[in-house]
Amino acid sequence: AQSVTQLGSHVSVSEGALVLLRCNYSSSVPPYLFWYVQYPNQGLQLLLKYTTGATLVKGINGFEAEFKKSETSFHLTKPSAHMSDAAEYFCAVRVDYKLSFGAGTTVTVRA
Amino acid sequence: GAVVSQHPSRVICKSGTSVKIECRSLDFQATTMFWYRQFPKQSLMLMATSNEGSKATYEQGVEKDKFLINHASLTLSTLTVTSAHPEDSSFYICSARISSGGAKEQYFGPGTRLTVT
């Protein structure tokens, strides 16, 4: 079965600092991987996705993620945090058009 | 493009009553829509997959008689929570998958906050 594990339920960073959110996946087939962001009381917005090809994926709002097959990881980074990055972030793997989500990581940004 | 709406955004109902939540794809056709449930501070759990013109496929543990799903058109799916109880209080989110093209991405609605008193 395919699944994702997000390491760290809460990450606190200073404004301007690096944001690093960790995601490891388990998949018996080449995975389609996604990162979503959720603001309070809202739905999910796609940040970026990996399907095939280039392993470094750039998304919206300055986020990027690197697919590392050897480490079964798909960590999300942003070089410089902004106050508006405070939100919940979900890593997900898609199998047969169904998305399976990680537990989520709450990001808080300190001024 | 690829906008999904949900109505209502918030609903409060009394225990024992039923409530209907609508999910619409506003600018694309969606043969498949998905319904998720999210408890506070938790992840999204897939409840069911809704296919236009056919019966929904429910995930294990989800009561199909309690959570009625209808996907009557390519732009509308509804979730009806029947005989709601306080434990059904949750954030319900739908997503819709574009019918044509290769990407087949899921686009998410803004969610519906259900509170059962």
Entry summary:
The complex is a heterodimer of chains A (111) and B (117). Helix content of chain A is 0%, strand content 59%.
Estimated structural class of chain B: mainly beta
**Rg calculated over all Cα atoms of chain A:** 13 Å
Number of helices of chain B: 0
Strand content of chain B: over 45%
Structure report:
The complex is a heterodimer of chains A (111) and B (117). With 111 residues, chain A is mainly beta. In chain A, 0% of the residues lie in helices and 59% in strands. Chain A has no helices and eleven strands. Chain A has strands at residues 3-7, 10-14, 19-26, 32-38, 44-50, 56-58, 64-68, 73-78, 87-95, 98-101, 105-110. In chain A, strands 2, 4, 5, 9, 10 and 11 form a six-stranded mixed sheet that branches. Chain A has a five-stranded antiparallel sheet with strand order 1-3-8-7-6, with no helix packed on it. Chain A starts with a strand and ends with a strand. Chain B has 117 residues and is an all-beta fold. Chain B contains no helices and eleven strands. Chain B has strands spanning 4-7, 10-13, 19-25, 32-38, 44-51, 57-58, 67-73, 76-81, 90-97, 106-108, 112-116. In chain B, strands 2, 4, 5, 6, 9, 10 and 11 form a seven-stranded mixed sheet that branches. The N and C termini of chain B lie far apart (37 Å). The relative contact order of chain B is 0.33. Classes of the chains: A mainly beta (111), B mainly beta (117).
Features:
heterodimer, A: 111 residues, mainly beta, 6-stranded mixed β-sheet, globular, B: 117 residues, 7-stranded mixed β-sheet, 4-stranded antiparallel β-sheet
